[in-house]
TrEMBL record:
Superkingdom field: Bacteria
GO MF annotation: an example: RNA polymerase binding
Biological source species: Treponema primitia (strain ATCC BAA-887 / DSM 12427 / ZAS-2)
PROSITE patterns named in the record: GREAB_2, TPR
Function (record text): Necessary for efficient RNA polymerase transcription elongation past template-encoded arresting sites. The arresting sites in DNA have the property of trapping a certain fraction of elongating RNA polymerases that pass through, resulting in locked ternary complexes. Cleavage of the nascent transcript by cleavage factors such as GreA or GreB allows the resumption of elongation from the new 3'terminus. GreA releases sequences of 2 to 3 nucleotides.
Listed name of the protein: Transcription elongation factor GreA
Keyword Acetylation: no
SMART domains, per the entry: TPR
Keywords: DNA-binding, Elongation factor, Protein biosynthesis, TPR repeat, Transcription, Transcription regulation
């Protein structure tokens, strides 16, 4: 079917070429017929062949109407960036005033997504047809995709203003304002600013945000001019705090602005009208005098004005205090342990920190602990706002935890509470982040939109890939505006990397991200030239670049682009797999019939795992995921060979962890191999099917893995004995212990481990809190609590050291190895005491199990060592307190475990 279709199109192109049909003969019906042909090509999956045919025809006949339309529409449907064919086609009919066809072509382009060119051209069509209402609809769409279009945004605002649709008018006035600022057109900015002051004067955050752009893009002087309008409004409605903030901004731009200095002084007078020392503090700070630096004067005044009766202060030794009275230059303060403490004002300013009555420290000092605990636990939003505001409205999670744990919340309660708190900080628009640090949170006086919140986070991020995640979150918001200044700036950050040659990782990542966004919003691609093969040619080390893409979605898209645009993709995939460990690589190679390459790649990984870490990880991944593939049998890797490689990798990963080399990666590899060998019982299943020689080889390798849990070795050993009761293990002797070893039972080994964990996880942290509390009590010389806590710390440290040493020396006893022919570990022995004629029974175990009252003695004790290795009937003497006792061994039996 596709061959007939292509032949038909070729004939149409030839006929068009030879007949040289005039443009006057074209109507929309011809293009509708071409649309039917495009549908047939799509159904026959012949798009690529059809586009290639048309593009080759355009090389020789650049104005072919049929070829331009077919090639351009296929490019649009494939979301390709190059729209030159359709632009040329539309331009041809615009030049010939064929407006019906122009309108049809523009609407067909817009069927595939917004296009600046198509919208602008369509508006001209409506203008020629005097369709005024339709023009405004097109302008709205155009303003949303053309981020530089300011005049149309202003025209739309005026249109809606006349119709008394003020919400829409304000929205477009704001868009126009931002765009005029970007163009540096202050006259237009001033005109719209005045309009917005009239219609949305309460949106203070908007004006304060915009003035920063004006100061940066136009001038600080112009920003001051506009800020004065907002100041007048704020002062008139008694929003004194905002008025003071505006004055500070003005003075930051121009510290010699005398009217602003005068106004901030008047605002302070209004704010602190009830303060007993207001005029005195204005005087001593020289706030109203011209010769003092205005910023120093403001800082000095704000320090002093906080000192008034009833306010709280903090001293690093005496803690929280409350000002009892202020008399001239003297202040009297009541501290918890130092009532009516008097100090000079100058000293107070330097030595004390003023804090509000809602400061977390004040609440801790004045509220009952249970009451504060319940409030914090039940209302995390209030708790977060309280702590963040307590520390100059900037606080990170670490500081928040320090204030709550353990003073208010327990460590266990913090885990649950902090999870809720993080969700609130992320989603609640009353919280923002510091522009300098993404991990530092602030409380906003006025909530903002989630889009502005994400934009602020984007600006605070310092990591490129964190910004990738943030712009994705922005786009994922419902009804998001892509024509906002927020998105425009974020998108421009990534398009800026497209031209960068020095930051290849960011360039590739930006290409993939931008391409994805353009795929969903085609209008974003206007003016951008994206060519993956050109970008890929710059990459010298593909695996390194892949690893540097710290984003899973970008990695997958990178692989997809290689397959789509790079002819040698199979070779690149094979080279890249050990670093990527991606199922999509395997599936793509398998689907395209590259199984021989998969076999060779697998063999390489199992041959090179000792020398290359990536090959080691790849070998583990392959055994976890590809062992059942039909082509895997062709690798020639026997099950024994697979196990040998896994055991070697297990041993290597243990050594690397011990040597602190790539600890995180090696722990991950170690866990994966351990799971395959032991938890999935691959090793046990193989042992149970193997012959003695094979078992010997495998067990010898396992036994050499010194860091493997002895319990796993013992379990494996027992399973071997169950299958081959007479099996002899290399190195087995009748010796029960090495020079430093400590023979123990499994039960006591696990009990000692539990003891160690309890001390480390429970007793040591509790002791640390005791020491911290004792330190808070003051003088250490007479601090009994501190001395007791430190003594307990010494005991705990000694106990931990002893337990760790014993556990390290412990060797698990295998009950299957009990030899009742001699007295040994795990046997019960009956003795005749020839000195008094009595019978005595003893169980021989280790020092951990020793219980003399119940006749359980350690093989390391003097008596235990004396009877060790004795046989039935054998006599021996043992001295107790200089008295020699004669014994005869009567019976030896194995203890049941």
């Amino acid at each position: 079917m596709s061959e007939a279709l292509l032949k038909n199109v070729q004939e149409m192109l030839n006929e068009e070429k030879w007949t040289r049909a005039t443009l006057s003969n074209y109507s929309t019906n011809q293009f509708k017929e071409l649309d039917v042909l495009l549908q047939e090509a799509r159904d026959a999956r012949a798009y690529d062949e059809l586009k290639k045919l048309c593009d080759e025809h355009l090389v020789h006949t650049k104005n072919s109407i049929i070829a331009l339309y077919l090639s351009g529409m296929i490019a649009l449907s494939r979301q390709l960036i190059d729209d030159s064919a359709l632009i040329n086609l539309v331009t041809i009919f615009v030049d010939n005033h064929k407006w019906n066809i122009v309108k049809y072509l523009c609407e067909r382009i817009l069927d595939h997504g917004e296009s600046k060119f198509a919208l602008r051209t369509l508006s001209e069509c409506y203008k020629n047809d005097n369709e005024e209402e339709a023009i405004y609809g097109i302008w709205e769409r155009l303003v949303k995709v053309d981020y530089e279009e300011a005049d149309l945004a202003k025209s739309l605002a005026e249109y809606y203003e006349k119709q008394a649709r003020l919400e829409e008018a304000v929205d477009f006035y704001k868009k126009a304002l931002h765009r005029y600022i970007n163009k540096g057109l202050f006259t237009n900015v001033r005109e719209i600013w005045t309009k917005l002051i009239e219609y949305c004067k309460d949106d203070i955050d908007f004006f304060l945000h915009v003035q920063k752009k004006i100061a940066k893009n136009i001038s600080k002087e112009k920003a001051v001019l506009l800020l004065n309008d907002v100041y007048v409004f704020c002062k008139a409605k008694d929003d004194i705090d905002t008025a003071i903030s505006i004055c500070k901004i003005i003075l930051e731009y121009d510290e010699r602005d005398e009217p602003a200095r005068k106004e901030i002084t008047e605002c302070f007078r209004k704010k602190y009208a009830d303060h007993s020392q207001l005029e005195e503090y204005i005087r001593i700070s020289n706030l109203a005098t011209k010769y003092r630096n205005v910023h120093e004067a403001i800082t000095d005044f704000e320090k002093h004005i906080a000192f008034d009766k009833g306010n709280y202060v903090f001293h690093r030794t005496w803690g929280i205090g409350r000002i009892a009275k202020v008399q001239g230059d003297e202040i009297v303060i009541d501290f918890a342990k130092k009532r009516e403490h008097s100090m000079g004002l100058k000293m107070a300013v330097n030595a004390l920190q003023t804090i509000s009555k809602n400061h977390i420290w004040v609440l801790k000092a004045t509220k009952k602990k249970d009451e504060l605990h319940d409030k914090v636990k039940d209302d995390p939003e209030w708790a977060l706002k309280t702590v963040i505001k307590s520390f100059n409205n900037t606080c990170d999670i670490k500081r928040i935890k320090a204030e709550f744990v353990p003073a208010i919340l327990s460590a266990g309660e913090w885990t649950t509470w902090s999870s809720k708190a993080r969700d609130i900080l992320k989603a609640n628009t009353s919280f923002g982040v510091s522009p300098d640090n993404i991990d530092t949170f602030t409380v906003r006086d006025r909530p903002i939109s989630i889009e502005e919140k994400l934009y602020n986070e984007f600006k605070a991020e310092r990591n490129f890939f964190d910004r990738v995640a943030t712009i994705r979150s922005y786009v994922a918001q419902k009804d998001v505006e892509l024509d906002s200044e927020y998105f425009t700036e974020m998108f421009a950050y990534f398009t800026g990397y497209l031209r960068s040659k020095n930051q290849l990782t960011e360039q590739v990542a930006s290409y993939i991200l931008v391409k994805d966004l353009i795929g969903r919003y085609p209008h974003l691609g206007t003016g951008l030239s994206l060519n993956f093969p050109e970008v890929f040619e710059e990459i010298d080390d593909v695996p390194s670049l892949f690893l540097n893409l710290k984003d899973a979605k970008l990695k997958e898209e990178f692989l997809h682009h290689i397959q789509l645009f790079v002819p040698s993709w199979p070779e690149i995939y094979i080279k890249l797999f050990p670093f990527a460990l991606s199922a999509s690589i395997i599936n793509s190679l398998k689907k395209e019939g590259y199984e021989d390459q998969l076999v060779a790649m697998t063999q390489y990984c199992f041959e090179s795992y000792r020398d290359h870490r990536e090959a080691r990880d790849a070998a583990v991944w392959i055994l976890k995921n590809l062992k059942s593939e039909p082509w895997f049998e062709r690798t020639g890797l026997t099950e024994e060979r697979q196990l040998i490689v896994l055991i070697h990798i297990l041993n290597v990963s243990y050594r690397e962890i011990e040597n602190h080399r790539e600890t995180t990666e090696n722990r991950k590899t170690n866990k994966q191999v351990y799971t395959i060998l032991f938890k999935d019982e691959v090793l046990i299943n193989f042992i149970e099917q193997g012959d003695p020689d094979t078992i010997t080889r495998i067990y010898t390798l396992i036994d050499d893995v010194k860091d493997l849990d002895p319990a796993d070795k013992l379990n494996l050993k027992n399973r071997i004995i169950q299958k081959y009761p007479q099996f002899k293990f290399l190195g087995d002797t009748e010796k029960t212990v090495t020079s430093r070893g400590l023979l123990v039972t499994m039960g006591m080994y696990e009990e000692k481990q539990r003891q160690l964990v309890h001390i480390m996880d429970v007793e040591v942290p509790a002791n640390s809190k005791e020491i911290a509390f004792a330190l808070s009590l003051g003088d250490l010389r007479e601090n009994a609590e501190y001395k007791a806590a430190k003594e307990k710390q010494d005991i705990l440290n000694s106990t931990v050291a002893k337990l760790k040493d014993e556990i390290e020396r412990a060797q698990l006893f295998d009950p299957q190895t009990i030899n009742a022919n001699r007295v040994s570990f795990g046997t019960k022995v009956t003795l005749d005491n020839e000195s008094n004629g009595a019978k005595e029974e003893y169980t021989i175990l280790g020092p951990w199990e020793s219980d003399p009252e119940n006749k359980i003695i350690s093989y390391l004790s003097p008596f235990g060592n004396a009877i060790l290795n004795k046989k039935v009937g054998e006599k021996f003497n043992f001295a107790i307190n200089d008295e020699k006792i004669a014994y005869t061994v009567k019976e030896i039996s194995a203890v049941s475990f």
